[in-house]
Structure prediction request, 521 residues.
Amino acid sequence: MSTPTLPLLNLDRRKPMPLYWQIYNELRQAILTRRLNAGMRLPSSREMASTLGISRNTVKDAYEQLIAEGYLHAGIGSGTYVTRYLPDELLSARGNEPIRLDAVDYSPTAIGLSTDHASQSTQRMASGLGEALRPIGSHMRHLAQAENLSPFAISKPALDAFPFDVWRRIATSVHKQMTSRHLDLRQDPMGYLPLREAIASHLRAVRGMRCTAEQIMILSGSQKGLYITARALISRKAGVWLEEPGYGGTHGVAQILQSALSLVPVDARGLDVEMGIALNDAADVAFVTPSHHFPLGYTMSLLRRLQLLHWAEEAGSWIVEDDYDSEFRYSGHPLAALQGLDINDRVIYLGTFSKVLFPALRLGYAVLPSDLIDVFLGTKALIDRHPPIAPQMMVTEFMEQGHFTRHLRRMLGLYSERRDALVRSVEKELAGALTLGPSDCGMHVVGWLAPELDEEAVIAQASTIGIPIDSLSRYYHGQDKCAGVLLGFTSATPDALQEGITELAKVVDIVRQNRIAPTRA
Prediction:
């Protein structure tokens, strides 16, 4: 076997970027621009470390990241190779351009209406769209009134582990700094510039994104980002791609705009791009969660990412990358965002602080292609001008003082411990009844129910003993649904998770004993 050729790597120890990330970036760029061909064998980590005069672990970290993202594959006992599964036309579409990483009472009685009059008036005032949104409003009121004590709550951070003392100190400092100009409505419509700069720096360093502060728009949560994006980009005629299954908040936004919906199936490699093209090759927008699919937990393969970018470029369409919780990756380093592969400015990236800090903060952000900045500003201006300035200043201080990175690192360790406790308990007490999906990223894991177990019966029985569980089937929006449960693990202690699984095992036994037949097809 011939000796593998060492690619030319330009490493600079003076840069703040870690050496493993420089190696990763150089090799990734060489693969995408075809300077490293498909199937080419790379030197071993030991050989490359010796040649470069660096630690072998540094090279191994870079290799493992590239393997995780699909650029390389490791043959058992035979070395590390550039993946063979990247078609030439997708690679050539990247060109040779480098990818840089750098309290009023309104009741009827109070306002002088009889109950009958009020009811008739409501019926006349609510539009068809309003009536369609009524169940959502009812659900939101229920959520606000009910305290979720389930150990398996999804997307709920460990709020008891948040550094409140640090946050209070920063809040006091920020309010002392505020002047009359901070109270004026005429703030930068894109958001507080120092915060945008801190976000851009973080995204370049950790997520491999190509962005500047000028492209970042601060939002009152990522759900508002989804709505603004849909309003700005979706036409009724062309329609949208939605993941199936997928996040209900995205589906709802597209639905109320009365757009044609194409439910594109998701498998273990992520969104099935070829199926999406077959369903609607001229859709305005594709909404995706590539780093950690919601709710199944899969990561979109490199091939599918390149196919998606190629389709968007050819069709003149847009991709919305909803990156809701991928900061929490428990094996290897965080995956590079899809936006970092996009050299044609077709990706709108949505991020949030709700999961990494706390939900009540209500701060998110969008990374926009330059050509869309004014479009999004105009759309956003009809909804709200900008989030409150004080929380933006506080998050900025939190990031600039290094607390954000430390908090992320601490939560990674905490959540990894809790995830492990959940997985161990399921394997011990629910073997044969529940099969877990991917758990290497995010804040929840899918549990696929055995065929003889009815999802509705399991969830109803669990609710009777005070353990609310989210169903998988409710995230399917077409006719075909799969049965399962979503098990969050971030907001409960390992002991609470173990106790919850023990109770869930009793629920499964009751459902089996009652022989409740599955209702699904």
Notes: The first helix runs from residue 19 to 32. The first strand starts at residue 41 and ends at 42.
